[in-house]
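Anyone have tokens for Long-chain-fatty-acid--CoA ligase? Sequence:
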Amino acid sequence: ELFGSVEPLLPSLREDGVAVWVLGAGPYPEGVVALQELLDAASEELQPEDVWEPEDMNDTCLYIFTSGTTGLPKAARVSHLKAVMCLSFYELVGASSKDVVYLALPLYHMAGSLLGIVGCLGIGAPCVLKEKFSASQFWEDCRAEGVTVFQYIGELCRYLVNQPQVRGADMGGPGGVPELGRGFQRRFGPVRIVETYGMSEGNVSLFNYTG
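Reply: yep, here.
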């Protein structure tokens, strides 16, 4: 649905050697790769390891576009090693395969894609993937799906404080303040909050184990 915004830029992108991949049926102009056709034609058998295994774990795995906190949005390199380390994110905050994780963060951001989706793969836990965060539907979703872990960005908690009371959940994420966390626990009961902080382009992450 975003291809219309990119299409006017195709000539300049081709000049710069930038490939454009689109997930959708098409048709698309020359030079645009329709991923759906390739996915439909792809074999379900896993290729030999020497085809997909990186030569060096510090090589680039993917690029994550930051939100532009320190300027315009920019591509941050994520190595294979950093991507693999994200497998242990939920284990670090105390979750396990017995938990059900609720994720309403955008998947183009590292918190949603690598920490969220890859983190669920790391502990073998089911993920309830919400297309868009809704404070009014949040608690209803959690009850319906048996959610026990919610990954957040700070401001989401502020919205939830205004919702009806509910008890019993774990939460992990960045950006809250102590007063908000204490108010959240007073209102919603025994919620365990684990604060973390990191950056897509950084090489250090912080975890508040003590609360």
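Residues 86 and 115 are 5 Å apart (CA to CA).
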